[in-house]
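thread: overnight batch results

M.L. [08:02]
morning all. the overnight job finished for the chain we discussed friday. pasting input first so we're all looking at the same thing
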Amino acid sequence: MLVVLSQFLKSTLFKNLSAAVVILVIGVLMIRVLMRLIEASLNKSRLEKAAHSLILSLSKAAMYILLFLIAASTLGIDVSSIVALASVLTLALSLSLQNMVSNIIGGFTILYTHPFHSGDYVEIAGQAGTVREINMTYTVLATFDNRVVSIPNSAVVAAQIVNYTSADSRRVEIDVSASYNAPTQKVLDALVQAGTVDNVLLEPAPAAVITGYGDSAISYNLRIWVKPADYWDVYFLVMQRIKDIFDQQGIEMTYPHLNVHLDK
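M.L. [08:03]
and the structure it wrote out:
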């Protein structure tokens, strides 16, 4: 038994196996160090943070595949045959996992075209929220009420994307109606007064217009400009102020009604 063990320890197989184990251990340690360096470089770069996870995942996968091939070559395994087999398996998997492949390609398309950036408030495929992350297969949004929505990257690329924060300002529009008995200029002035609050941009200045004449009321539209981050705070504040100011000035906010006249 000792003789057999001694011969095995002196054999080429043992030496190759030992070398492969050493390569794997050193390789794993090097990959960890390289991943930390890549992550640090990404944090210092101007690349979107939403793309960091995608790049890190692909880099890690590529390095582990390379490490496996090096270790296999050390054991005397024909790496070219492994690569050929891997190519066949990759083709078979790509056919069976078309959706995943299209999502990965969609992720690269998003990173290349930059339709939005990390932290932008966007609307994609009927879902609105702040861009939290772009991973290998999904774009992750955090909605206004703190729900996390994951949209496949292929759907993101195919959908209409509305980016509400790409510009420096955003317009708040509020539609209201008022009685025909209220002078139009009085209503317009009251709306502008309601829209003149903190965080509202003075250029363009708040403005109100008449948008239509209904059966029982006149329709008005208030337009104010704000920075994207202030949109909802200003919207809710102005909505409250409109009713308060209308009440103070005796302006009636009407609702659909029908006047019935009876002949004597």
